[in-house]
Write a structure and sequence with these properties.
This protein has about 100 residues and is α+β, with helices and mostly antiparallel strands. It has one helix at about 35-50; strands at about 10-20, 25-35, 55-60, 65-75, 85-90. Helices cover about 15% and strands about 40% of the residues. Strands 3-4-5 form a 3-stranded antiparallel sheet. Strands 1-2 form a two-stranded antiparallel sheet.
Length: about 100
């Protein structure tokens, strides 16, 4: 996660959508291609991170820090050798300039 693709990925595509009417309503997705060894390392790391970050964490993207309030593993029926599915919940706030 973040504003830069994983340097271990061969290629990465990022997409995001956000509501202009409801602040904080957004979704983002990244799709990366890895070689076999890199893919195995990534899957293991994601499984470990989801388990360790269940009660939330902070992340900094483009010098802005945000708070994720939960990370939950999901069971999704997907094609492929192995997958990790998860949902992240984040908190957002608006700061009024005075």
């Amino acid at each position: 996660m973040g504003d830069k693709p994983d340097p271990a990925a061969r290629e990465t595509v990022n997409r995001g959508l956000g509501s202009q009417k409801q602040l904080g309503l957004a979704i983002s997705a990244s799709l990366s291609a890895y070689g076999e060894a890199g893919a195995r390392k990534l899957i293991a790391g994601l499984k470990s991170a989801v388990a360790a970050c269940g009660s939330g964490f902070t992340a900094t993207v483009q010098k802005r820090t945000g708070t994720y309030t939960a990370a939950k593993a999901r069971d999704l029926d997907v094609a492929g050798d192995e997958s990790v599915s998860y949902t992240l919940s984040a908190s957002a706030y608006a700061k009024t300039l005075g």
